[in-house]
Design a protein that fits this description.
By secondary structure, this protein is mainly alpha-helical. The protein is about 75% helix and about 5% strand. The radius of gyration is 20 Å and the shape is elongated.
């Protein structure tokens, strides 16, 4: 089923906005991790952990789920299809993987934020050690989101076995690629 042009543009706008928002929220989370890693002030470290929890649950998780949902809508409602092109399939798999890792890691972030809220300034050693794991998660998440962005922009050629019909059509001797995202 193909969407009408108005509905397609609305869905595309929602998908781009949620995907770019997800990427931006991860950058913000990464900034909080770096601030906590480089700070000598216990209050800053505690505040960073609490802010990471809030950023994760109220920005990153909803944007990740919205990006996944709108991406499914876009792939099922346009000529790109969900299983026709390798780049769409890879983007879907990376998005699902990133969302699962995010949801699993948010349990740890919530726990650490709770510890940070209850810990005195002398007991931050364990929290500082946990920051390296958060740096890895946020950095890895950012890398995955950049790869999905590159796939969306460049749309590498290649169809899956389920692709069937070519995505190009001959118009007056010229080849034209589908412009849906």
């Amino acid at each position: 089923m193909t969407m009408t042009p108005v509905l397609r543009k609305f869905a595309l706008t929602a998908h781009v906005a949620s995907s770019v928002g997800w990427l931006g929220a991860v950058v913000g989370f990464l900034a909080l991790v770096v601030a906590a890693l480089t700070s000598q002030d216990a209050q800053t470290v505690r505040a960073a952990f609490i802010a990471m929890k809030l950023t994760g649950w109220f920005a990153i998780v909803p944007l990740a789920l919205a990006s996944l949902l709108t991406g499914l809508v876009m792939s099922l409602g346009t000529t790109w299809g969900l299983f026709r092109h390798y780049w769409v399939l890879f983007k879907l798999l990376l998005t699902i993987l990133a969302t699962i890792v995010l949801l699993l890691n948010m349990k740890t972030v919530s726990f650490l934020a709770g510890v940070a809220a209850e810990t005195g300034s002398a007991d931050l050693g364990g929290l500082r050690g946990a920051l390296w794991g958060e740096l890895l998660h946020a950095g890895g998440g950012l890398l995955v989101l950049l790869v999905t962005t590159i796939l969306s922009v460049y749309k590498p050629r290649g169809m899956t076995r389920l692709g069937g019909v070519s995505s190009t059509s001959s118009v007056r001797g010229r080849s034209r690629r589908c412009s849906d995202s």
